Amino acid sequence: MTTVRDALPMLLDEVEAVRVERLSPSFVRVELGGACLADFGVDGPLYDQRIKLIFPDGDRPLPSLAGAGASWYAEWLARPVAERGHLRTYTVRDVRGEGAATRLVVDFAVHGADGTAGPGSSWAERARVGDRLVLLAPRRGHEFGGIEFAPGTASRVLLAGDETAVPAICAILGQLSGQTRGAAFLEVPTSADVQTVPHPEGVEVVWLPRDGGPLGARVHAAVLGHLGVAGQRLEEPEDVDPDLWETPSYSSSGEAVGAGTGPTGSDGRLEDVYAWIAGESGVVTALRRALVRDLGMDRRQVAFMGYWRRGVAMGA
Ligand SMILES: Cc1cc2nc3c(=O)[nH]c(=O)nc-3n(C[C@H](O)[C@H](O)[C@H](O)COP(=O)(O)OP(=O)(O)OC[C@H]3O[C@@H](n4cnc5c(N)ncnc54)[C@H](O)[C@@H]3O)c2cc1C
Questions:
Q1: Cβ atoms within 10 A of the Cβ of 135, count?
Q2: Can you tell me the distance from the alpha carbon of 54 to that of 41, in angstroms, rounded to the nearest whole number?
Q3: Binding site membership of 27 for ligand 1 (Cβ less than 6 Å)
Q4: N or C: which end of the chain has fewer CB within 10 A?
């Protein structure tokens, strides 16, 4: 029998943790399973495919979306928070199995030892096999969006981010052609969070543990150093958009999409480079200024994405 929900152009259904693994001090890997995942899929590589997860509010029950139709979001949003739970964005780190046994792998960067843990991180810290979430994800054969990595014909890639971008960068690295050249810079909280990941031989992978140092300083210096700008220190810009999202096809600041002058001050180091940079919005904003404003990198060659913002809980 076809239900209304079966007719939605995406998956919107309950899934359950079928495996939980503490990868390292800052990462918990959860494999999500459920019958709906038989219909999960996109045309082509997943790269940095994002999904949404709805977490229960504390110990309250998971919201039911049974019978949800096209206006599910407005209806869900109209419920009290305690009842509707919390919607957050994550990345498909990997897909395992097939058919009804398909499992989505999600790597959670856990945070909040300072008392600021949000519902996503708290859920992951306590996750046990059998715990349930609501998943919003691409349904095979339907347009869903949510893949930003698009290097086009660039001959070199530059990937950079903090721990929240590690799942996306690792997923991208695992799906690049063996001929790809470039570099990936991954800042993580501690040395024990460094992972061994498959990547093309021509892509240098550099892990940057903070080990108590300030957020973003290492990835900022490493990206600029890679582009030949030495000794640049991270300075947090004053006007940070928590929802920073600047890609060749979308601008959260309203800038003209597709505009670009081409590299002016980089002696050709930026020509033919495609840059994908994600993480804390202030850190990403500072890198964007350095690359686009100071080095004149073409907007069509870059994707800058604020994955979270210090002091701001992600809204529904
Ligand atoms: C496209 C996209 C893909 C993403 N993929 C992943 C992924 O695969 N894995 C992943 O772990 N995250 C990922 N994120 C980031 C994740 O959505 C945010 O970190 C989110 O805020 C976590 O929700 P929460 O409920 O734990 O915290 P929230 O309730 O949103 O925030 C509570 C507090 O925690 C702080 N905070 C949030 N995240 C962090 C952090 N990482 N470190 C320190 N403080 C933090 C906030 O500033 C706030 O003060 C992604 C985000 C986007 C937009």
A1: 24
A2: 20
A3: no
A4: N
pTM across the whole model: 0.95
Superfamily of domain 5-138: Translation factors (2.40.30.10)
Residue to probe by mutation, ligand 1, list 31, 81, 277, 314, most atoms within 8 Å of CB? 314
Question: Which segments of the chain belong to CATH 2.40.30.10?
Answer: 5-138
Residue indicated by tokens 């001959």: 155
- Regarding the beta carbon of 107 and ligand 1, being less than 6 Å apart is answered yes
Report which protein residue has its CA nearest ligand 1's atom 42.
111
Summarised one tens digit per residue, pLDDT across range 282-291 is 999 999 999 9
Are 214 and 226 in contact by the 8 Å Cβ rule? The answer is no
Instruction: Enumerate the CATH 3.40.50.80 domain ranges in the chain, comma separated.
Output: 156-308
CB 50 near ligand 1, within 6 Å? yes
CA of 80 to the centre of ligand 1 (A): 22
What architecture is domain 156-308? 3-Layer(aba) Sandwich (3.40)
